[in-house]
Amino acid sequence: MRIDLNSFSFFTDFVDTKVTKVKAELIPCTRVSMALFDSLYSDGILRITGHIRKCFDEFYGDFDELRKMLILEDSEHYEIISQVDREEFLFRLFKHFCLGGSLCQYEDVIDPYIETTKSVYKDMVSVQKDPETKEINVISIVFKVSAYNDSGMCYPATKDHEQTFAYLAVDPLKRHVYVLYNCFGVGLMSATDTDKPHT
């Protein structure tokens, strides 16, 4: 299966502009279990109940040890996940879900983040058993993509943000491409008829 991301026509369904350049970053995708997150349970980020430890307000405000580990390199827990593992698609999904959007209400326990990551990962990534070694291996190829027009980036958004992304997961056997897309920010909101005051 061959996907020519530089054909630009691939993006005509996503953007209403003439695409002049496409960037596609190959994302490591090798994990076949959730063991990557075992260290969260043993390194003081979580309580034995699975509750996420909070930070002292005078230092970090509305923050917890999980989000510190995810984004602050000077966090005492930052290195429990190696830089190599932080590049993995599985970890990227987990980080995106934990950080959320601009109106995110953070969870107090880890389970919703782990279960959501696991569910989306299983939906997007295909695996296959090696006939010789009997090991399960990921066969999907994952790209993080962005498209540009004459004015700059136009997909997945016109402004860059850590929580703005578009991932393409390519299944070479089924010849399917799965897209996971998010644009950080608050969308347009309008009052419905039930929200309007009665006269």
UniProtKB/TrEMBL annotation:
Keywords for this protein: Cell projection, Cytoplasm, Cytoskeleton
Superkingdom assignment: Eukaryota
Pfam families with a match to the protein in the record: CFAP300 (PF14926)
Keyword presence, DNA repair: no
Subcellular location as annotated: Cytoplasm, Cytoskeleton, Cilium axoneme
Role according to the record: Cilium- and flagellum-specific protein that plays a role in axonemal structure organization and motility. May play a role in outer and inner dynein arm assembly.
Family: Belongs to the CFAP300 family.
Protein name (database record): Cilia- and flagella-associated protein 300
Organism per entry: Polyodon spathula
Gene for this chain: Cfap300
